[in-house]
Amino acid sequence: MENNKFPKGFLWGGATAANQLEGAYLTDGKGLSVADTMPGGKKKFEVLKSKEFVWTIDEATYYYPNHQGINHYHHYKEDIALFAEMGFKCYRLSIAWSRIFPKGDEQEPNQAGLEFYDQLFDECLKYNIKPVVTISHYEMPLHLVTKYGGWKNRQLVKFYEHYARVILTRYHKKVHYWMTFNEINGAFHFPALSQGLVPSNGSLDKQMIFQAFHHQFVASSLAVKIAHELDPNLKIGCMILYATTYAFDSNPKNQLAALQENQEMNYYCTDVQVRGEYPTFSKRLWRKYGVEQPQFEEGDLALLRDYPVDYIGFSYYMSTVVDKVSTTATSVSGNLLGGVANPFLKASEWGWQIDPTGLRIALNELYDRYKKPLFIVENGLGAFDQPDEHYYVADDYRIDYLRSHIETMAEAIEDGVDLIGYTPWGCIDLVSASTGEMSKRYGFIYVDLDDQGQGSFARYRKKSFYWYKNIITTNGADL
Ligand code: BGP
């Protein structure tokens, strides 16, 4: 029953990140990463923003989640076999920088780390699953934070360039699709996680965030340059956190505020990485935050111009509503991005407002603006799953969420959008980025592990596993 809405060769798959599932945090020469030393728990983000937060590993037990993940490091064959059983065409994963360069500033890479990813990619290729690799996903060697202060330091550009050169050179025959930084614009909300910036006195100097962005943009262009010099056919993309942004009402002031929020969150980084130049609204944005133009070195702007990305990868979980002037709006609790409640939408148990139509809008907006292929590399519903006595989870709520989003993807393709793939987030249960816990689950595969790190680590197929397998088999026709 082929409806031909999804193009032949559409990349159905799933997505994960090294720091949230591999575990084995000091195995085979891996160094400590920022993710290994982050607090866990529901208040994770509050802790990260507080002035008491210091980057230390003293309380090893407190940080268990990322240390053991779901022990994918030792279960990867079993996990990839399950992905293959669902029929994955691709698998988005990240390389742990701290496995390749334990401290980040070495010349010589860690051979055991390189070999691990060789085996992982070979395992994917055995099943004709194309690896899609994020070079840096909320994970960097801790030493680059403690010694250099994270991405605000220009030296990070050369460390990243060296790391990117090593992995691109080693794996470019096995990996065709790459992305330079996960959710690069996420730093507007969580700079500790993505830029390795440590708050002082409970706040971060905004100048540092914008300087760090600039260094990441330069690093991203260098990675594009390296990739295309190795093989002009390689596809290397950016990756942004996209939230469709609405004004609360037709008050022009709210409309303007929504436009500006959209520019800031969705387009500041993307314009630089895709169009190869800073957008005209940059000056307004810097003024808003009371910061100067970031320092550019000679040659930076030419590099950005000459090496834009090939495609746009993005995560989409929710939309957000901006209100500057109304008195009737209620602020939404839990929504990662803040904003006010949308009376037309329901929210997940974590306050993320569920909006499949917003995905069609996102796809249209991004494609109209950039005319580059789009790749939805994260989407999904975090939920508390309740397995029965056989560890079976009847996750109809997850199926409903995914189905409604796939429907609007098909509509966007009919609108003319060039969408190349879809990798729902956390295709196997893993540690949540925002809570550091296991109980916020996204997977098609249940992993027996709780928030205290207790469990058998056994894997079980959920109801959504069989549903998604059928989606892939019918190329999205049988929803
Ligand atoms: C994105 C991150 C992922 C992932 C996902 C779900 O922002 O790129 O790493 O974790 O969100 O978020 P959470 O785990 O907080 O529910």
UniProtKB/TrEMBL annotation:
Gene Ontology terms: cellular component: cytosol
Listed GO MF terms: beta-glucosidase activity
Regions crossing the membrane: none
SUPFAM superfamilies: (Trans)glycosidases (SSF51445)
Active-site residues per Swiss-Prot or TrEMBL entry: E378
Family label: Belongs to the glycosyl hydrolase 1 family.
Keywords (A to Z) from UniProt: Glycosidase, Hydrolase
InterPro entries the record matches: GH, GH_1_N_CS, Glyco_hydro_1, Glyco_hydro_1_AS
GO BP annotations listed: carbohydrate catabolic process
Protein name: 6-phospho-beta-glucosidase
